[in-house]
Write a structure and sequence with these properties.
This protein is of the alpha+beta class. The longest helix has 19 residues, at 85-103.
Length: 718
């Protein structure tokens, strides 16, 4: 007889501290039940019954069979949980047959009979042998098999009817351990290699088994069995199904407990990363299709995006510093944005404020919260370990914590944001090219329509209007697990929980994030890269250039923004900031980047022998038509180069949400008379033109004739 329990009484033996003892007497006291134990030397000892049954010092000695933690067999719950749905159906069907064979009813009870039950061949009055024979004939098996089923059902229930192959460990129970060991070794060797075929791996496994076990013959499984075992090993060591990069990531997973930083308040940890966007955009200077890179800063606690910047081709250290500056000084929202997307200018949600509109009028805020980062988590990219960014962080008191090499999960939340951005926004924009080369369309460049600054405005607006207001699965308050929190609500919750936020002290903090150039002040002003800057604030410093003061003392730091070279900034000896203007800035009514000026100089050098900056800018504005990508003529040229804009107005599709963004709607709502006629033939060009261009200037000589012709056509149309 077997069971989970055994008799405890006089004569029951235990092993106490390694010595065998016997129960000789029970005593019922006011404090509880006690037993008297006798060892092999007839020594007596008293012990409470509770301690005898629960102490780790004591082990019961019994002679009855039954379930035990030391059993090799798995418990019924484990056996049944390993089954697939089809296998579970087969087991339940077999169980019904066994119940009918033993009781005459498929349910096992005469209170729950099915139609025509009990059947004559399984009536209760018939002997078991006759019922066994009838069921064997009905099932098409031998009488020995149904007897075995009945015996297993009486002992283990439904779990006893599970086939042995399904009970095996992950489908490898019948596999030779030596063959499995060799297969695992071969699969691990392919973790860093290109993806092989299953056939090649099986051949290598067979050769490995023969070379390793020379003295013992290891049976080689049949081909179908080997493929089935290899399919099971694929679940444990991915090699054939996923991408090779994904397989390497799985192989590099730590074998220990996962560690995790746990932010407790806004601003404690800020994640910063750069990714190449899966969409083409037009460079407003060269009018070429170029890659776009997005750099974002995310507050880990709230998942709020506190800074972002879109740059053509590649990101520089100054761009990363500009993104970090947005955490302190977010940009103002345009008037076309919805009111709910605007944060108050100090970054605190309106839910914890007195309604400011009743006191100060309409609310005009910024696009995201203001957060002073405490710890910046970055990867090992050049722009993040550059002297400029690390110096800025040191100046701001920000601790820089690099992530582990080739470990993207250290910045998991921001990586997930990039995927959300691609799936919810980018793939609905023209110029979308897919996440990899296998997902790319035939010619995505023909649909490129947005300029880089427009693409940034669209992403910024989508982040403020949609992402910050939508419930986020990764945001959870352990005290309120059922409450769905958005990044904006989590910021409000974190502010109420922490009780404070870090705010910047210096109103001139922006200058700390700019590039610094050391120059002397001459009589005509300051010269940087052939550009001369002047202003009345230099009057007291012009005499220093020709004085006997050491050169190191005559050189002053000047702060410049590469995206706007029309002005520079410096701080005098009284620690007051001043701005100097470029001598040709009055002829401009817009910012001019360093790259645009270089492009203009090279354009002028092609047409004039002795060009200067004034002439170069005049030629650039003439060819550019003073538009910076916003004039209607410029739009017409962009449309001519990129063909017609793909339709985004399909009714009933999620693209309607993207089209409703004011930044997208404003660009797409062009006058119909400016739209070009359908182009039947297009100039042959490489599908990837401008895809991986380094900076847009190296191939200028070959492209000038094409751009000059395109621009000349526009002048003729005017």
């Amino acid at each position: 007889m077997s069971g989970a329990a055994t008799k405890l009484g006089v004569g029951t033996h235990f092993r106490l501290d390694g010595e065998t003892v016997e129960v000789v007497e029970f005593a019922s006291l006011a404090t509880g039940m006690e037993v008297v134990l006798k060892d092999g030397r007839n020594r007596l000892a008293r012990m409470s019954l509770r301690e005898l049954l629960t102490s780790d010092r004591v082990e019961l000695i019994h002679d009855r069979s039954g379930p035990s933690a030391a059993d090799d067999e798995d418990v019924a719950a484990v056996v049944l949980s390993r089954l697939t749905k089809d296998e579970q159906k087969d087991v339940l069907k077999r169980t019904a047959h066994v119940r009918e064979m033993l009781t005459g009813y498929r349910s096992g009870s005469e209170d729950l009979p099915q139609p025509n039950e009990p059947r004559p061949q399984y009536a209760a009055g018939l002997p078991l042998k006759a019922r066994y024979e009838a069921k064997a004939v009905e099932m098409g098996v031998t009488e020995r098999t149904v007897r075995r089923w009945a015996r297993a059902f009486r002992e283990f229930g439904e779990a006893g009817l599970v086939p042995k192959t399904a009970q095996s460990d992950g489908g490898l129970g019948n596999a030779d351990p030596r063959w499995v060991e060799a297969a695992v070794e071969v699969l691990k060797e392919y973790e860093r290699e290109s993806r092989p075929s299953v056939k090649v791996v099986l051949e290598e496994v067979e050769a490995r088994v023969k070379s390793t076990f020379k003295l013992v013959k290891v049976p080689v499984p049949p081909r179908t069995t080997a493929y089935r075992w290899m399919q099971e090993l694929e679940r444990r060591h991915p090699t054939f199904r996923l991408s090779t990069q994904r397989n390497r990531d799985i192989a590099d997973r730590p074998r220990k407990v996962y560690g995790k930083l746990r932010p407790t308040r806004p601003g404690e940890y800020v994640l910063m990363d750069t990714t190449r966007l899966d969409v083409f955009a037009l460079d407003p200077v060269t009018l070429r299709w170029m890659q776009a890179e997005l750099t974002v800063a995310m507050d880990w606690y709230t998942r709020c995006i506190i800074g972002l910047r879109v740059t053509p081709v590649s990101t520089k250290a100054i761009d990363a510093a500009a993104v970090l500056y947005q955490a302190y000084r977010p940009q103002l929202v345009p008037e076309s944005w919805p009111r709910e997307a605007a944060w108050p200018e100090h970054g605190i949600p309106r839910g914890v404020l007195v309604e400011a509109e009743a006191v100060h009028g309409p609310v005009t805020g910024v696009w995201g919260p203001k957060v002073a980062p405490e710890t910046l988590i970055v990867d090992h990219g050049k722009i993040y370990v550059s002297a400029h960014l690390t110096s800025v962080c040191r100046r701001m008191g920000i601790s820089v914590q690099p992530a582990r090499l080739r470990t993207g999960r250290d910045k998991g939340p921001v990586e997930r944001f990039f995927r959300t951005l691609r799936e919810d926004l980018l793939q609905r924009l023209p110029g979308y090219k897919g996440p990899d080369i296998h997902s790319r369309g035939l010619n995505p460049e023909k649909d490129a329509f947005f300029f880089h600054h427009e693409l940034e405005a669209i992403i910024r607006e989508w982040t403020a209007v949609t992402y910050h207001r939508r419930p986020h699965e990764g945001l959870l308050d352990p005290h309120l697990p059922k409450v769905e929190l958005s990044p904006a609500a989590m910021f409000e919750h974190g502010l109420a929980r922490a009780g404070y936020i870090e705010v910047p002290r210096d109103p001139h903090l922006a200058y700390e994030f700019l590039d610094v150039t050391m120059r002397t002040v001459q009589h005509y002003g300051v010269e940087i890269n052939g550009r001369r800057y002047n202003g009345g604030c230099l009057d007291g410093l012009r005499d220093m250039a020709g004085s006997d003061i050491d050169l190191d003392k005559r050189r002053l730091p000047f702060f410049a923004d590469p995206d706007d070279v029309t002005r520079i900034h410096f701080r005098d000896h009284e620690r007051v900031w001043h701005t100097l203007q470029w001598e040709h800035a009055p002829s401009l009514n817009m910012p001019l980047s360093e790259e645009a000026l270089q492009f203009a100089r090279r354009l002028a050098a092609k047409e004039h022998t002795y060009p200067d900056d004034r002439l170069a800018i005049a030629l650039l504005l003439k060819r550019w038509n003073l538009g910076l990508g916003t004039s209607l003529v410029e739009r017409r040229m962009a449309l001519r180069l990129s063909r017609e804009q793909t339709a985004l107005d399909l009714p009933g599709t999620p693209a309607d949400d993207v089209r409703s963004l004011p930044s997208v709607a404003r660009v797409l709502s062009l006058p119909e008379q400016l739209a070009p006629p359908p182009i039947e033939t297009v100039q042959d060009r490489e599908p990837e033109a401008g895809d991986d261009d380094a900076d847009g200037l190296e191939e200028l000589e070959e492209e000038l004739d094409f751009y000059a012709t395109a621009l000349k056509d526009i002048d003729d149309d005017e």
